[in-house]
Amino acid sequence: MKQPTNTPETNRLPRGVRLRSAWNTTAALLILAVLLFPVYWMLNTALQPDASIAATAWFPTSPSLDNFETAFSTQGRSLLTSLGVALGAVVVCLALAAPAAYGLAQFGLRGGQGIVFTTLITQMVPGIVIANAMYSAYAELGLVNSYLGLVLADASLGLPFSIVLLRAFMVSIPTEVVEAAMVDGANRFTAFVRIVLPMSRNALITAGLFTFLFAWSDFIFALTLNTTDDVKPITLGIYQFVGAHVSDWGAVMATAVLSAVPAAILLVVAQKYIAAGITGGSVK
Amino acid sequence: MTTITSTAPATATGGTSASAHRAPRGRRLLRWLFVAPALTYMALFFGYPLVNNILISFQRYTPKTYFTGEAPFNGLDNWRAVFANELFGDALWHTLLFTVGSLLGQFTIGLALAVFFSRRFRLSGLVRAVLLLPWLVPMVVSAVVWRRILDQEHGMLNSVLHAVGLVSADGVPWLSSPSVALLSAVLVNIWIGIPFNMVILYGGLQEIPRDVYEAAALDGSGPWRTFRSITLPMLRPVITVVLVLGFMSTVKILDLILALTSGGPADSTQTLGTVTYQLSFLQLDFGQGAVVGNVLILISAVFAVLYLRANRADFGKGK
């Protein structure tokens, strides 16, 4: 985007180029239609009240929100659970990641590079292995079937990513800014809270959004660290819903639509951060 | 990816701060307080499982263990049992097919789209952004949607293929035939992984200086030649990172398969991930589950080393 858009060719053949641009746009929209078809199909099925077991019509000619009503009444609690757990995970994750990232970015700690390396590597530990080993500890601590247990586990999904992302940002904060505040009598901690955190707002938002999304999408911890239905996030809810009500596809798809809402919001609200997030943290 | 590079210069001045009157040792300790909570948490949630998983793999867990709390050590029994189990070999093979198939598809299509979107045209940025949606939606949810699409009798895919005349009225048993189910899982996972590959490769393409292409054009190099002699070689560090990261996230996939096929039909979609889950949480034999988990970690570790080496190469060139 930084490059000038005019190649020598553009100046000579504006009309031909414009034509090619239109052709490319058409091709792009076609690609979009093919790749996003499942998303359309999810919406389409959700909007058709009698999309039960028989084949679904191509378009929702008489759309209704009946399925969404069913989805809310059967899965509403799970949606709330997911919301609570994901928000909790964001709080835990940022509270741990922000000071750590600052420390790693600005203090020149001995072994700091090693810590960043280790942080990158932890993203490679399979979730099922963590669940497998954590289960017995959770059982002993009484954390199975608890919100706290799931929040703590889900926070691990965003922590390495957040540390790496925030650290990359905080490296660029000039040390003089913090030192100036400390000359004025602030200690390291208050300087961090009053100066560094506000300056890092955008990076914190990005890290928080991704952590929210990871926690919202979590299935493995929801499945393994809960043996009853007390704490049932929406991913687990929809999984059981499909198993039990496989004939009511309209309601299942309405639930699917609802559980995709955070992804859609993230796409609209934080669009510019996403590419940075994917490449910067090298996640998933 | 470039994050490891920049610590040194920024931190060199960190020591000469206003709090210099305090004892340097105490100050150093105070600084660690910023990092300590996160480190403790990571030790508990990543370090402990890695160690404990190795220990558990030498212990005998039974459903009774959860009443008595006793899990006696049993040497190599779990390992022998797992390696003797035919399902383990099958799962290993399925994991390999699933991972390699997914990566090939995701990468090829992702690269093609990245190259395509590098052209300048109207709506390019917007379309690129919207294409990310499949990657952001929870994997279980995607899998459930695909389960509906791939349904043999009432699924949309079969009715279209039948209407076009490609398949008979019976349709393809996408998820219900042992010989097709794994392929279906691979196709769905390719769909999920395309955005990730596209975004990173697109970023890599933007880093290649324009004048290299102009020079190639002056030399009369055609598009294919340019792609092979300039784009691919210059993109290589990014390609390595994409493939290694893709490998590590694909090899451990569990939610997609559980929601799509639950490992069936006839265990044809069992992978190391699903077998670990099944052994530990359905058969409640955490010892044997840990063995399979350790194998999974070992495989990931090999690629983690590759990743670090690729990063170092990237780092050396970048700065």
From TrEMBL, chain A:
<keyword id="KW-1133">Transmembrane helix</keyword>
<keyword id="KW-1003">Cell membrane</keyword>
<dbReference type="Pfam" id="PF00528">
    <property type="entry name" value="BPD_transp_1"/>
</dbReference>
<dbReference type="GO" id="GO:0055085">
    <property type="term" value="P:transmembrane transport"/>
</dbReference>
<feature type="transmembrane region" description="Helical">
    <location>
        <begin position="203"/>
        <end position="223"/>
    </location>
</feature>
<feature type="transmembrane region" description="Helical">
    <location>
        <begin position="249"/>
        <end position="270"/>
    </location>
</feature>
<feature type="transmembrane region" description="Helical">
    <location>
        <begin position="79"/>
        <end position="102"/>
    </location>
</feature>
<feature type="domain" description="ABC transmembrane type-1">
    <location>
        <begin position="79"/>
        <end position="270"/>
    </location>
</feature>
<protein>
    <submittedName>
        <fullName>Carbohydrate ABC transporter permease</fullName>
    </submittedName>
</protein>
<dbReference type="GO" id="GO:0005886">
    <property type="term" value="C:plasma membrane"/>
</dbReference>
<dbReference type="InterPro" id="IPR000515">
    <property type="entry name" value="MetI-like"/>
</dbReference>
<feature type="transmembrane region" description="Helical">
    <location>
        <begin position="114"/>
        <end position="135"/>
    </location>
</feature>
<feature type="transmembrane region" description="Helical">
    <location>
        <begin position="147"/>
        <end position="166"/>
    </location>
</feature>
<keyword id="KW-0813">Transport</keyword>
<keyword id="KW-0812">Transmembrane</keyword>
<comment type="similarity">
    <text>Belongs to the binding-protein-dependent transport system permease family.</text>
</comment>
<feature type="transmembrane region" description="Helical">
    <location>
        <begin position="21"/>
        <end position="43"/>
    </location>
</feature>
<dbReference type="InterPro" id="IPR050901">
    <property type="entry name" value="BP-dep_ABC_trans_perm"/>
</dbReference>
<dbReference type="InterPro" id="IPR035906">
    <property type="entry name" value="MetI-like_sf"/>
</dbReference>
<keyword id="KW-0472">Membrane</keyword>
Automatic annotation (TrEMBL), chain B:
<feature type="transmembrane region" description="Helical">
    <location>
        <begin position="286"/>
        <end position="308"/>
    </location>
</feature>
<feature type="transmembrane region" description="Helical">
    <location>
        <begin position="129"/>
        <end position="149"/>
    </location>
</feature>
<keyword id="KW-0812">Transmembrane</keyword>
<protein>
    <submittedName>
        <fullName>Sugar ABC transporter permease</fullName>
    </submittedName>
</protein>
<feature type="transmembrane region" description="Helical">
    <location>
        <begin position="91"/>
        <end position="117"/>
    </location>
</feature>
<keyword id="KW-1003">Cell membrane</keyword>
<dbReference type="InterPro" id="IPR035906">
    <property type="entry name" value="MetI-like_sf"/>
</dbReference>
<keyword id="KW-0813">Transport</keyword>
<dbReference type="InterPro" id="IPR000515">
    <property type="entry name" value="MetI-like"/>
</dbReference>
<dbReference type="Pfam" id="PF00528">
    <property type="entry name" value="BPD_transp_1"/>
</dbReference>
<feature type="transmembrane region" description="Helical">
    <location>
        <begin position="238"/>
        <end position="260"/>
    </location>
</feature>
<feature type="region of interest" description="Disordered">
    <location>
        <begin position="1"/>
        <end position="20"/>
    </location>
</feature>
<dbReference type="GO" id="GO:0005886">
    <property type="term" value="C:plasma membrane"/>
</dbReference>
<comment type="similarity">
    <text>Belongs to the binding-protein-dependent transport system permease family.</text>
</comment>
<keyword id="KW-1133">Transmembrane helix</keyword>
<dbReference type="GO" id="GO:0055085">
    <property type="term" value="P:transmembrane transport"/>
</dbReference>
<keyword id="KW-0472">Membrane</keyword>
<feature type="domain" description="ABC transmembrane type-1">
    <location>
        <begin position="92"/>
        <end position="307"/>
    </location>
</feature>
<feature type="transmembrane region" description="Helical">
    <location>
        <begin position="29"/>
        <end position="51"/>
    </location>
</feature>
<feature type="transmembrane region" description="Helical">
    <location>
        <begin position="180"/>
        <end position="202"/>
    </location>
</feature>
